[in-house]
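Bumping my old thread because nobody answered last time. Still need a sequence for this structure:
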């Protein structure tokens, strides 16, 4: 039972260390993106595929015809 408390305390300490490292990197501007907004207008937009036009003529199937 004591191993659970040991593992729990170690995992909480590791989580706190990673959280502090994340906060420090955010405050130092590690995740700031200053390049992409300036060149976003130069990227090509994705082409929208048009739906194929449906045929106006109907094809009769011989199995659907009534005798």
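Sorry it took so long. Here it is:
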């Amino acid at each position: 039972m004591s191993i659970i408390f040991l593992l729990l305390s170690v995992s909480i300490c590791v989580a706190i260390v990673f959280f502090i490292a994340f906060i420090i990197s955010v405050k130092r501007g590690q995740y700031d993106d200053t390049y992409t907004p300036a060149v976003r207008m130069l990227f090509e937009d994705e082409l929208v595929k048009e739906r194929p036009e449906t045929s106006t003529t109907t094809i009769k199937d011989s199995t659907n015809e009534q005798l």
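The mean pLDDT is 82. Let me know if any region looks off to you.
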